[in-house]
Amino acid sequence: MADGFTPSWQCYITPLTSSSVRQVNVSEMNEEEKGSCCTADVRASSKLLSDVSATVHGLQSIFQEQEMTANIHDSEGHGYLATFVGKNGRFAILRMHSHGLVTFDLQCLEGDDVAQVDNLLNALENKLKALLDGNIQRIKRLPALVRGSDVDRYWPTADGRLMEYDIDKVVYEKDSAYQNIKILHSRQFGNILILNGDVNLAESDLPYTQAIMGSGKEHYAGKEVLILGGGDGGILHEAVKLKPKMITMVEIDELVIDGCRKHMRKTCGNVLDNLKGDCYEVLVQDCVPVLKKFAEQGRTFDYVINDLTAVPISTAPEEDSTWEFLRLILDLSVRVLRPGGKYFTQGNCVNLTDALSEYEKLLGRLSCKVDFSKEVVCVPSYMELWVFYTIWKK
Length: 394
What we know:
Elements: E1 11-13, E2 25-29, E3 36-43, H1 52-65, E4 68-74, E5 80-86, E6 91-96, E7 101-108, H2 114-131, E8 136-139, E9 154-156, E10 162-164, E11 167-175, E12 180-186, E13 190-195, E14 198-202, H3 206-211, E15 224-229, H4 234-240, E16 246-250, H5 254-263, H6 265-268, E17 280-283, H7 287-297, E18 301-307, H8 320-335, E19 337-349, H9 353-363, E20 370-379, E21 384-393
Parallel strand pairs: 1-3, 15-16, 15-18, 16-17, 18-19
Antiparallel strand pairs: 1-8, 2-3, 3-7, 4-5, 5-6, 6-7, 9-10, 11-12, 12-13, 13-14, 19-21, 20-21
Helix pairs in contact: 1-2, 7-8
């Protein structure tokens, strides 16, 4: 489907019974008018739609006025399915279920008239009001949904909700040996780093960086710090300001560093311009063998900051490898943590209670006994509350 932008409407029908009323509505078509698809769903009491056939035929005149040819199918007791095809390439599907659900989908091709589409929606809405005796509790027009654009502006939250970002351009995109790397520009959040389809960090997301460093409660001056991941440079940039003795950052993907060095300057400043500075060193390596080497050498740190991956969103078996990776990183990190030291990491969305609970159980199964605290922070570009953990040896 090509790019699209179109207004849509949302109707709530007042039921004659005490059954709940639910309405979901989506629409699309864009400024370039390359194509559009409008979707409308109406939930009504089955009593209001007792004569489904009459309602379908009552709506048919709306499409005839648009010179759309109808083809109506009786679903044998399950309602009616009607398709409408227009000469201009419009294609509509109207389905009326006997239990009271009405769904409507309208697809348009390039060059279709936006005003005509809007008029069709208005006419359909008014006709439904008349056919259903005005029993519409609420009407709501939804913002445009753009699909098929060269610039993808839709990204899911961790708990599965679809969010629309005000993305206007692709700043950077590379496929490394490890992942797909995108940096997209948002008018609201600045440049956003997206790895394998997951929103990682935007230039607006200082609250994330502050939370994963202890929310300003720690004293980094003169301390030794280990950062795992963090290729965007945000943690390194903020940590350097606190005058630590030494920061060692281990990031496996040099292309992430390269992209952020050029396009995430508000996040990383100039710390990624050189991989070694007066109080820091960036190792472009896999952190697991590095952690094992540090443990064997007896090298320890006051702070270990794990910015590698969030807690998996699922406890299903297919996520076992990620859970095992988290356990390995935790065990190795605790081994290189000095007495009194702290380990910081992100958890996940506050709504993922099962996954977060599983992570907290995991903390009780480490080779070394630990305790923990957690904090919930609003990360701007995530558009959801995020959990962060502080972990220390008992």
